[in-house]
Amino acid sequence: MEGGEEDYTAANAGASATYPVQCSSLRKNGFVMLKARPCKIMEMSTSKTGKHGHAKVHLVGLDIFTNKKYEDLCPSTHNIDVPNVNRCDFQVSMFAELSILKCVN
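RE: above sequence
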């Protein structure tokens, strides 16, 4: 950039859409990213440690937008992304009902 020209088109607030969490700390009815989609955890099971491996967590979740089922298997000590999910409740304070009048001949 020459002559004091600055480009701010790539600026952001610094917030992230996801954050990492250890697989073993996830719980049923929580949220997780499965196959790059935000999902609500419907089923979760943990296998025992094998002779040469780690305990594994089997996750089954429903996409929060499409209700499509996704499954994943990850070691319990590894991190997995969890989406930032906010719930906002609204209350309607005024509602005017619009009635449509039909003309009868």
